[in-house]
Amino acid sequence: MKTPNTIRQALALLLVTLAAASPGPAAADGLSGDELVLAGLVRKHTPDALKLLERSVLVNSGTLNPAGVREVGALYAKEFEALGFKTRWVDMPAEMQRAGHLVAERTGGQGKRVLLIGHLDTVFEKDSPVAPWQSDGKRVRGQGVSDMKGGDVIILLALRALNDMGALQGRTVRAVFTGDEERVGNPIEVARAALIDAAKQSDAALAFEGATRDEQGRDAATIGRRASGSWHLTVTARTGHSAGVFGRDGYGALYEAARVMNAFREQLIEPDLTFNAATIVGGTSASWDDAQSQGQAFGKSNVIPRDAQVRGDLRYLTAEQGAKARERMQAIVDQPLPGTRSRITFSESYPPMAPTPGNLKLLELYSRASIDAGLGEVVAFPPGQRGAGDVQFVAPIVDSLDGLGAAGGGAHTPDEFLDIDSIERGAIRAAVLIYRLTR
Question: Distance between terminal CA atoms of the chain?
Fold first, then answer.
């Protein structure tokens, strides 16, 4: 009887022979015998992975549909368990109104400990008119196909191939699929505790948000993401008859708010820093309802406005850039027009993922795996062009790489789509990288 190693060697020899005989580029010449087997196993299981993708997409899992998020989590949990992973569901407190997270683990003492990051929720809530699944054989359109159920399926496909080879034995691989990436629950420290805990037990983090291309059309991955935060400007002014504006009664709240915003625009603009002013409400009286994201104001044209509130977001690439921006914004606020008083507050939802040497090294390893598999070079995507993601909570703790998921487009829109062949391509790259990291 042939041993598993003998069978694996024979399969590797067969795959090498087929690769040498096939037309086209000698794409996989850089893969070892075991890695050739691994790529072959990914291809073998891709049809089943596409069926899993369809099953998961047909379940609505909008962030505010906890039952749907849990259903998708249960579907993926069965897949992990079939691969020898222990799974658990991390519930969130009821007042957070979030479903919770799926955590799956295999532990061992060999190689680097790898964390794989996905998310179960989508932006398409239960009443969404967007069709859940439409396929023409080359592309799939639907709810969350590329953001990011396609990435979740790539993780499972890569792990299935690794498990079939016995390559997960004695290795530590953790996966955390969050249930509220699209609308993170509050408090954030509770919502991301499980993810951060997993990062503290890992040596490398790989996140599978959608794959991208750079301006030259080259495949790209993410070594940096800008922080996502907000600022809130509150202005209080001396009120009175409009005839007294610019004089004894000062400038009023709206001119002061305009001064601050224009000074931000004139003095703060630099690469990778943005500070969008999103809403302004002002008048004799003004109020804002955070829960409804709307405000009310009262005022008359012959009265100097007393109140103004401005809300915006703040995005920066490094903690140092964020601190400097907040300091400069505060300095501008601290120079109010006569008769006015301004105050600004800041909050941070997602910390920055700075492009570190460790992240760049992971990209080099990923690109080498892709080249060796005949799938071409993968370059760094410009960090300032990528939105926020869960990887940012772990990047300050562990070397991280994102954008390893499915290729597609139209995320968060009714036209969201996924290129079907990117599932196999992404899983081969991921499987080879995980294999090499965990040796």
Answer: 28
Distance CA 264, CA 269 (A): 8
Is residue 356 within 8 Å of residue 256, measured between CB atoms? no
CB-based contacts of 22, cutoff 8 Å, min separation 6: none
Instruction: Round to whole Å and give the CA distance between 340 and 329.
Output: 17
Q: Do residues 41 and 14 lie in contact, with contact meaning Cβ atoms separated by under 8 Å?
A: no
CATH, residue 288 = 3.30.70.360
Q: Which helix (H) or strand (E) holds 151?
A: helix 150-165
377-403 pLDDT, tens digit each: 999 999 888 888 999 999 999 999 999
Q: Are residues 399 and 268 in the same domain?
A: no
Give the CATH number for residue 398. 3.40.630.10
218 shares its domain with 232: no
Determine the pLDDT at residue 273.
96
Length of the chain: 439
What is the DSSP code string of 81-124? HHTT-EEEEEPPPGGG----EEEEEE--SEEEEEEEEEE--BS-
In this structure, are 161 and 88 located in the same domain? yes
Domain end, chosen from 350, 383, 413, is at 350
Residues 92, 212 share a domain: yes
Q: Is residue 213 part of a domain?
A: yes
Number of domains in the chain: 2
50 within some domain: yes
CA–CA separation, 309 vs 290, rounded Å? Answer: 12
pLDDT in tens, 202-239: 999 999 999 999 889 999 999 999 999 999 999 999 99
Range of the domain at 420: 23-225+353-437
- Same domain, residue pair 405 and 293: no
Among 299, 334, 350, which residue terminates a domain? Answer: 350
Q: Using the predicted structure, report yes or no on whether residue 249 has a pLDDT greater than 90.
A: yes
Same domain, 184 and 256: no
Q: Which residues contact 350 (CB under 8 A, 6 or more apart)?
A: 225, 227, 228, 229, 388, 389, 392, 393
Residue type, 392: Q
Q: How many other C-beta atoms are found inside a 10 Å radius of the C-beta of residue 105?
A: 17
8 Å CB contact between 404 and 207: yes
Nearest CA among 238, 329, 231 for reference residue 280: 231
Per DSSP bridges, beta strands 379-380 and 101-106 are unpaired
Nearest to 137 by CA among 425, 417, 405: 417
- Rg value, the chain, Cα: 26
